[in-house]
Design goal:
The complex is a heterodimer of chains A (111) and B (116).
Chain A lengths: L2 E5 L2 E4 L5 E8 L6 E6 L5 E9 L2 E4 L6 E6 L2 E6 L8 E8 L5 E3 L3 E5 L1
Chain B lengths: L2 E4 L3 E5 L4 E3 L1 E4 L4 E8 L5 E7 L5 E3 L5 E5 L4 E6 L8 E9 L9 E2 L3 E6 L1
Parallel strand pairs in B: 2-12
Antiparallel strand pairs in B: 1-4, 3-9, 5-6, 5-10, 7-8, 8-9, 10-11, 10-12
Classes of the chains: A mainly beta (111), B mainly beta (116).
């Protein structure tokens, strides 16, 4: 069965600290993977997508980066967090007909 | 490029009443259409999708949506809502062809609040 794990579930970090959010998927191989951010009162903003190991496309210029070190692992990182990086981060993978299956999300609060 | 507009940011309704959440989209190419639901502090769950064929699509939890190509709309409906339907609902589109790599474009979301 299809499963997405996101770790951690919640995170509180000070401004200027580094960030690493992890997404791992089960039940598929060579998936297209996506990172979204959902800020308070806003819709979902696509941050990055990946079609394979080491292949990352950025959708918007920002303080974040992504990596895909393994087929079923997608990592979101930052060297120095900003207040504006606070939000709910969602990982997703592409199913047939472009339907996306979402993980449970990580709530990030930057203080 | 595509865009999605959800016409209502918040929709309050009483339990057992009907509800319609409106979604309009803009695209220069053919698209797939989706509705997702998000409960507080959870990920998104697919409610229903339109790929082709019948323009009336039925989904989970008694929801349905109708694709109207001439009006570029994909409104979500439920004839009788429950308290448990309280959540945020997102409309999304995706190019059928091209080099979009399956990316979804989302609307801003509609918060449905069902009152007893």
């Amino acid at each position: 069965s299809q499963t997405i794990h996101q770790w951690p579930a919640t995170l509180v970090q000070p401004v200027g600290s580094p960030l690493s959010l992890e997404c791992t998927v089960e039940g598929t191989s060579n998936p297209n993977l996506y990172w979204y951010r959902q800020a308070a009162g806003r819709g979902l903003q696509l941050l990055f997508y990946s079609v394979g190991i080491g292949q990352i496309s950025s959708e918007v210029p920002q303080n974040l980066s992504a990596s895909r070190p393994q087929d079923r692992q997608f990592i979101l990182s930052s060297k120095k967090l900003l207040l504006s990086d606070s939000g709910f981060y969602l990982c997703a993978w592409r199913l047939l007909s472009n339907e996306q299956f979402f993980g449970p999300g990580t709530r990030l609060t930057v203080l | 490029a595509q865009s999605v507009t959800q016409l209502d940011s918040q929709v309050p309704v009483f339990e057992e009443a009907p509800v319609e959440l409106r979604c309009n989209y803009s695209s220069s190419v053919s698209v797939y259409l989706f509705w997702y639901v998000q409960y507080p502090n959870q990920g998104l769950q697919l409610l229903l999708k339109y790929l082709s064929g019948s323009t009336l699509v039925k989904g989970i939890n008694g929801f349905e949506a109708e694709f109207n190509k001439s009006q570029t709309s994909f409104h979500l409906r439920k004839p009788s809502v429950h308290i448990s339907d309280t959540a945020e609902y997102f409309c999304a589109v995706s190019e059928i062809h091209g080099t979009s790599y399956g990316k979804l474009t989302f609307g801003q979301g509609t918060i449905l609040t069902v009152h007893p």
